[in-house]
Amino acid sequence: FTSIDFLLKYSEPLRQLVKSGNLEIQGGVYHLATGRVEFMGRSPRQAQLLASDSSLPPSLQALPIRTTTDKTVPPKEALRLLKEGNDRFAVGAAVAGKISSDMRKALVDEGQAPHTAIIGCADSRAPLETVFDAMPGDIFVLRNAGNTCTHSEGSMVGSLEFCLGALNTKMVMVLGHTACGAIKGATATYLQSKAGTKPQVNKALDALLVGLSSVAGKASEELGRFATEQDIVAHTIKLNVFHTIDFLLQYSSLIREKVAAGEVEIQGGIYDLETGRVEFLGESPNQASLITSGAAMPPSIA
Question: Are the beta carbons of 197 and 204 closer than 8 angstroms?
């Protein structure tokens, strides 16, 4: 359906033919094992897309550069930009990267005004600007192994406060990803500890994995005793996204106040390494209780 939607969204001639009834675009899946085709019919979004305006395919469009001369982007608009950018990336129609010397100069002279701040994993397979087909100046990026605030609380929280305060960004996205090595290591550390083997903390990586293992423990409890290690890893990836969001709300009065006032939104997501798609998870289930909590400093600087 993604391919059908792309055709209807970016081709005015095709839209007109479908509207007039002279053309139908339907989908199907060929099953190699049986030799049969599963006929799926029209896209569920056909009516909506037929009513849309004509636009050029993304590969023929030029994305603008955001600077301080542009209006502040509201949270819902920023989320839309993220979703559209990821759609372009996932279907191989990314356009970012076409930047001129004048654009670079504008970013220097006029300053940055990112529409979104993202806390993501340092994994090289999940390049955040690329995943959202973003231009320089679009996204304020913070990365570490496991997209966590467990150990780099001070720098991560402080950097995010700078983005929301000084740069006036309104959307925060905490993005995990499938097959996360840090989460796999943390899950293994948790299971070893559960089996009676005390984790050795001889280097910074060990401390990171021990810090994340509590999230793996919570995932294990929620899934029950029949969950496999792979099941726990997958659930921990999701819980860790919300764990990071909760940390930000708990230990930053600035972030908490802006979220409570409706000025800023913090949402989570999981990037699928295989499909290129981001699953948008929304806000933390604990947000309502956390924004009414008292101010506290991050443990590392308290």
Answer: no
Which pLDDT tens digit goes with each residue over 222-248?
999 899 999 999 999 999 999 999 999
Q: 225, 235, 226: which is closest to 184 by C-alpha?
A: 235
**What's the whole-model pTM score?**
0.78
143-158 burial: b if 16+ Cβ within 10 Å, else e:
bbbbbbbbbbbbebbe
Q: In Å, how far from its chain's centre is CA 275?
A: 14
Closest alpha carbon to 78 in 284, 276, 264: 264
Contact residues for 96 (Cβ-Cβ < 8 A; gap 6+): 63, 85, 129, 130, 133, 134, 135
pLDDT tens by residue, 2-59:
889 888 888 888 888 999 999 999 999 999 999 999 999 999 999 988 888 766 666 5
Residue whose pair of structure tokens reads 């905490």 in the numeric block: 174
φ, ψ at 130 (rounded to 5°): -70, -45
Which phi and psi angles does 278 have, rounded to 5°? -100, 130
Strands (E), 98-255: 116-121, 139-144, 171-177
